[in-house]
Amino acid sequence: MRTEALRVVRAGALTTVQDLGRAGHAHLGVPRSGALDEAAHRLANRLLGNPETAATLETTLTGCAVRALRPVLAVVTGAPCRVTVDGRPAAWGQPVRVPAGAVLDVGAATHGVRSYLGFAGGVDAEEVLGSRATDLLSGLGPDPLRDGDTLALGAVPAAGSPAAPDAAPWVAPPRELVLPVTFGPRDDWFTPEGLRTLLTGTYRVSAASNRIGLRLEGPAPARAREGELASEGMVLGAVQVPPEGRPVVFLSDHPTTGGYPVIGVVHPAALGAMAQARPGTPVRFTPAGAVPAGR
């Protein structure tokens, strides 16, 4: 039986429950989902002594606020932001004790997009296909947070020293997001000039981006073939080019099939940097093998 430990005071623009996702179900049409900035999610759990599979709250730009219904230990990682407990400044990137009745407020991101709010024991939402992650495309997992919702937490880890982080708690997003891309499987649907356009053109992150995909504004790679493909499998990081020509880089909640040609695939190591890229951030593609910027 779950006992509520938190009440949502301010849900923010979009706050979801996330863990490491539900990999292995693409054949059922179920995306991987999970924390977009996986490094920040893992760090929050390490700082609390949780297993890295424990669920956290992923906020978007405006943060969120929760009232503790019992004493809890919490931490905020990912995008830097102001953290307060009942209006008093609290540490970002370090565990914070929140007394019963106090409000923990995770403010708007000062850099980046997504902050991660972790709790000792993890968010105890109902598992679906082995994961507690909210999937915005399929609708699996708990709904995005709303004001007044209550949340349960899992069992607090046995007393001991939380693992020390093996990296800095935050790597600021670069002024230009550089994405290593491997061409294919449908690069033959584009002209040689179209492939050069992808590598030499300057793109920008669109405000229409979300957990499904990083939508880009910029030059359209010239097509060598017209028409549509039969629907085929899609992977994390696939760069799909719809008819209007603006590339979309698929993120964690991406569809598992699609009919627009995939000109290339971005290396998964760049996912964290993409998760924190604000609208308007310049984006440049580079041949795979280069070190991803931002991580």
Automatic annotation (TrEMBL):
Keywords: ATP-binding, Hydrolase, Nucleotide-binding, Transferase. Coiled coil: none annotated. PANTHER family: 5-OXOPROLINASE SUBUNIT C (PTHR43309:SF3). GO terms for molecular function: ATP binding; hydrolase activity; transferase activity. InterPro entries: CT_A_B, Cyclophilin-like_dom_sf, PxpC. It comes from Streptomyces mexicanus. Transmembrane segments: none annotated. It holds the Pfam family CT_A_B. The keyword NAD does not apply. This is Biotin-dependent carboxyltransferase family protein. Residues 27-295 form the Carboxyltransferase domain.
